[in-house]
Amino acid sequence: MDTINHTDAALQEQLSFDHFRSEVLKDYKVACESRETSLLGRKEVLTGKAKFGIFGDGKEVAQIAMAKFFKPGDFRSGYYRDQTFMFASGLATVEQFFAQLYADPDVNNEPFSAGRQMNAHFATQMVDESGNWLPLARLKNVSSDIAPTAGQMPRALGLAFASKLFRNVPELHSQTELSDKGNEICFSTIGDASTSEGHFWETINAAGVLQVPLAAFVWDDGYGISVPKKYQTTKASISEALSGMQKEDGTNGIE
Predict the structure, then answer these.
(1) Residue 253 region, left (φ>0) first, then alpha (ψ -120 to 50), else beta?
(2) Chain centroid to CA 103: how far?
(3) Is the pTM of this model over 0.85?
(4) What number is the average pLDDT over the span 183-212?
């Protein structure tokens, strides 16, 4: 009877209007803050107060949804327009974002790279000051972003393949600080224009062959900088172009 009551209580909590409203308002706040961050940051660059800026406006809702599935132990191998995801995941603040925009060398203000990286290039700490591994299996992890387009994809494959090894190799099961026996996912993000890069296709093909826990998110902007995707993507749709790799009964592939 207690179990049933607990289950009912959990269902009521999931369906509670107050809980739903609270979540919606919280998400809306994150989206608005991220959009205003983009607008203000762009003004700072155009008025010469910051040297260079990359921003993620237009991707707020999708990245908030993505963040809800990002759990401790997971990894992100993404690119430079994921600020909303970082805000929603609790891995970055608006203040830290602007500290990086101004290249603040104080790691307390700019924890991603202490001013060494371009803005919107995120990372989380993986070792302590003595070089010892942090308990990555209990942390939300972000591999350091890189600027070359699609360069994050091969690394995403490696991170996902590592999880598969932690699951399939019994000798690694004792490494509980690094992995929960391979029950992690690598989240990879990329803009639709960068899907024309060879790295993207090699990674997706290898992920389908190796069957690794890789979730790839393509932010569909319709343009690559100023070029419409119909001029650079087959069928003007990366989803359509990838459809032949879709997993079917009795085959490998992607889902």
Answers:
(1) left
(2) 22
(3) yes
(4) 96
